[in-house]
Amino acid sequence: MFKIDLRNGKSFTCDLDEIVLDAAKRSGISLEYSCLSGRCRSCISKSLSGATRDLQKDLVLTEEEKSNGYFLSCCATPTSDLRLDVEDLSNYNLPKPKTLPAKIDSLKPRSKDVLEVVLRLPPQSGFSYKAGQYVKIIRGSVRRSYSIANFSPNSAKIMFYIKSYLGGEMSRYWFEKAKINDLLRIEGPLGTFFFRGDDVKDIIFLATGTGIAPINSMIEHFKLNPHIVSNKQITLLWGSRVKEDLFISSTDLTQLINLEYTPVLSRQNDNWEGEMGYVQDVLIKKIEKFDQAQVYACGNDNMITSAKNLLVQNGLAKNNFFSDSFVCSK
Ligand SMILES: Cc1cc2nc3c(=O)[nH]c(=O)nc-3n(C[C@H](O)[C@H](O)[C@H](O)COP(=O)(O)OP(=O)(O)OC[C@H]3O[C@@H](n4cnc5c(N)ncnc54)[C@H](O)[C@@H]3O)c2cc1C
Ligand code: FES
């Protein structure tokens, strides 16, 4: 058994061959994570002393990062005591994940390849989540991650925006077989993509495709609790290939007085006079200073990596960039 110390003075123990993230959870300590499969980098951790080895394949870190003491806490186990330079999120009181039955309440196409799915949970389930978190939806032996797209804490209904992936096992179910009242299961809430609410002036949301889902949930949370953001300027850039893929109307997204929304298309579209290109490049043209900003980015992995590099080069503090990468959750 090894001892793991965090920079805030807390510590926990990790059994032989136990994954660091699991050991932290077992001790009631919340560390940053998203995909749980070594693909998204959310759980990247720096070891100030001690060593680790991977039990699950790390698919993203470079050799240079590894030789500088970085590892993925969803993949690695310690081979000695560790001292880690990571944030402990326990003070945010993230709700404990549960596994619950869930019935399909409604299915509504939102664009040619996005379906809005509402699941109904047992009324007494007491399911709660932070806006921005996701759940695993379970059908038989297939489990896929989907971000909760609404924020309605007193209702037993949770909504998702689900994209169709060619040849996708769960996509085939959603787009060809799913019907009202089908019985599924969910496990959640999961992930640490939620609004931190620190003392910053600018809140910037970057989304591509269905990556708008957790951001829509955060915006609904702000609409219910406007005081949280009353002294902040909120900027949202949402990117897609064509305008028909922007499946939420700008009126629905901008009911917050201090939210400025810019849709961005990456392909030439007829009659489009708005922004073209990638959300992160458009953002750099709109905002010059990022020293008072917190950025929440969700969707495509390439956008997230590129946005983080670009914004950090332009003055954003690394620890003010939060992301949920919609990597393949197989
Ligand atoms: C934290 C998290 C949150 C997510 N939230 C959402 C969400 O709100 N809405 C949503 O539509 N999806 C979301 N995803 C992605 C989702 O979990 C599935 O990966 C996706 O729906 C495909 O599942 P599938 O069974 O249809 O395809 P699979 O059978 O898993 O894969 C079929 C094919 O599609 C490719 N593929 C699968 N997933 C992706 C992907 N994400 N990007 C690129 N190629 C892919 C695979 O490589 C494979 O070739 C999220 C993923 C994560 C990790
Ligand atoms: S890489 Fe560890 S949570 Fe995604």
Q: H/E element string?
A: EEHEEHEEEEEEEEHEEHEHEEHEHE
Q: What structural category arises from helix and sheet content?
A: alpha/beta
CATH C-level class of the largest domain is: Alpha Beta
CATH architecture of the largest domain: 3-Layer(aba) Sandwich
Please tell me the total number of domains: 3
Overall mean pLDDT stands at 95
Neighbour order of strands in the largest sheet: 11-10-13-8-9-12
Count of alpha and pi helical runs: 7
Biggest sheet overview: 6 strands, antiparallel
**In percent, how helical is the residue content?**
10-25%
Query: So, the CATH homologous superfamily of the largest domain?
Result: Nucleotide-binding domain of ferredoxin-NADP reductase (FNR) module
Q: How far apart are the termini?
A: 31 Å
Rg over C-alpha atoms, rounded to the nearest angstrom: 20 Å
